[in-house]
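Box 4.2: Ligand-aware structure prediction
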Amino acid sequence: MKKVILIRYGELFLKGRNKRFFESALIDNIKNSLRGLKFGFFKMQGRYFIKDFDEDNIEEYILRLTKVFGIHSVSPAFEVSSDMDTILKTSLEVAPKRGSFRVTVNRADKTIPMSSTDISREIGGYILENRPALTVDLHTPDNTVNIDIREGGYAYVFSKHVMCVGGMPVGTAGKGLLLLSGGIDSPVAGYKMAQRGMELNAIYFHSDRFVSEQAKQKVIDLATIVSGYAGNIRLFVLPFSDIQEAIHNNCKEEFMITIMRRFMMEIAEKIAMKSGCGALVTGESLGQVASQTMESILVSNNAVELLPVFRPLIGMDKSEIMDISLKIGAYDTSIRPYADCCTAFLPKNPVIKPRLEVAIAEQMKIANKDELIDEAIRNVEVIKIGNSGIEDLI
Ligand code: ATP
Ligand code: MG
C-alpha cells in the first residue's frame, strides 16, 4: 500500500484571471518548503499530491506543509487500486479504534455500478464487523473514513485532516521590508503580511557596539522562524551604534527614541527601494508604548517619503499578539533576555506626544545626519535566511 500526502488549497483565490499566477506561486512554495527532503509532486483534478517520500519521516513533511500559506489542509492517505476488496481492507487501516465514525465516499469514477451511499454502507458494515466497539454517527462523528474513488482504477483512503495556515501564497502580493527587532511583535507582523501573500525582506538595526552578538543571533533565529512561513528572507543587519551615539550627543534625552525611529524609517525606506520592496512593515500596536501613540507614529511616519507603511498589529491587544507568537513558535525566542538597541539608550522620560516640528528641529542638530545614514547603509550586512539560495540585490 502506497502512502501519499493529499494537499487541499483554498479555492477562492484560484478563481478568475490570476489562477495561473497564484497556482504557480503556491506550487513553487510547496516545493521550496520541502527542499532537502525526498519527494515527488503531482497535480490532479484540483488537488496536489506528495508521493515517493520518506514515510518514516512523514511528520516532518506534514509540519512543513502546514506552514505554507495558501494550503487549506493536508491528509496522509493510502493510494490503492479501486477494487472493493482492497478498499475494504484499507478502510480498516484508517478507521478509529474507539468512538463514533461515518464513511464518506466520493466517486469520481462513474463507471462503478454501486452508488456512493451503497459503497459507504458496505464499508461501514465491514468496519463495524471488525471493530464491534465502534458506533456509527452520520451527523457529528468523532472520525470520518474518507474514500475518494478516482477514474483510472485507483482510490484514496484517509481519515485525518490536518488544518494548515490558509491565506494567500507568498509572492502573490508584492514584497515588503519588515523592521524586525528581537521582540514579540515584529515577527508576528511579518507572519501576518506573509499570510496575505507578501514576500519579505527584513531589516534589523543592530546596536553593534552596545549590545551583544547574542541579540543579533536572536533576530537571525526569529527571521528563520518567520521564513518557515514566509519562505526565503533577505535579512539586512544595519550597524546602528554611530547613529545612536550622535542622537545621544546632540539631541534632548527625551527625544532619543523618537529620533531613533525617524532614522530607522528613513533608512528602511532607502533599503526597501534598493531591494525591490514596495512597502515597509512594522510591529507597532496603537498605544502599546510611548513610541506608539498616534503622535509618535505621525513623527516617525513623516520620515518616510513615498512607501506605504503597513502595521498589521495596530489594532491588536498584546494578548492576541502573544497567542499568534506562540502559535507560530516564535515566543520562546522572542523572550530571550538580551538587550536590544532601544534598551541600551532608554531615556528616563520619553516624550509621549512629540510635536513634529520639535522632533525635526532636534534631529537637525545632527549636522552630519545624511553622511551617517550613507555610512551605515554602506556597511550593512546581508544574511540569507531560508532554504534556497537567493542572489544579493544590494
Ligand atoms: P517588538 O516586539 O517588535 O520589538 P515593541 O513592542 O518592542 O516591538 P518598539 O520597540 O516600540 O515595540 O518597536 C516598534 C516597531 O519598530 C517594532 O515592532 C519593529 O517593527 C520596529 N523596531 C524597533 N526596534 C527595531 C530594531 N532594532 N530593528 C528593526 N526594527 C525595529
Ligand atoms: Mg522592541
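In the box above, the bound molecule is adenosine-5'-triphosphate. The chain has 13 helices and 15 strands.
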